[in-house]
Amino acid sequence: MGRLPMESCKGTVTELQQSPTEGRPASDAHPPQTYSLKELINKFNYIHFLDGTITACFRHKRYDTILSLLIKPQPCTDNNLICSWHSSHELQRKLQEHHFQHLLVNDGQNALVVNPQVVEINRHTLHFILPKTCEELNSRRFHRYPCSEISAQLIQNGSSFQGALTEFSATSLNIKVKAAPPQTFQWLNPEALAALVLSREGETIYSTECTILKQSCGQNTRPLC
Q1: Against a cut of 0.70, is the pTM above it?
Q2: Domain ranges of the chain
Q3: Domain 34-137, CATH class in plain words
């Protein structure tokens, strides 16, 4: 595969520039599951009850990179969703440099892509009008590109998991990591941001902030998306 971008950017997912004819085509045999507005509202209220977060994704106006920021949903009774920022670090600069793209709602098992209408986004709150339906994130709909010889390091809450990049698409990066004792995969929190560093032959070629959308079973090694 071609060399990954050398620039460092923050994002949940990253579009890597490849020819649309490369990679293997996505399968249409597994269409994404659709959720109604009522089901989506229930998920937001459940996340609020747990004092959890969702992810707001933004695209850089100049560099086309993706920035993911954690936000906290407030109680929701209709299609109006009000959220507060989880962190205000350099928030004003980030809002000036990026356009809002979509929301990612991750309950630890499924990740939903929500495309709401923006009412207002400022330094204090985010106000959205929710759509009537949303879909589960399904990477099968996109071309996937197998990778080799790319080392991956996933860092979260001071713990570092070593592994390798296995494939990527326009919506996700897939890695396989190892848990070296006393590490356990229970240390990974899907609701918290992590840092991902990709390298080849000891040279860092890409780094990003990310969220863990999905993870498979495995005691010593585990695929993550």
Answers
A1: no
A2: 34-137, 145-224
A3: mainly beta
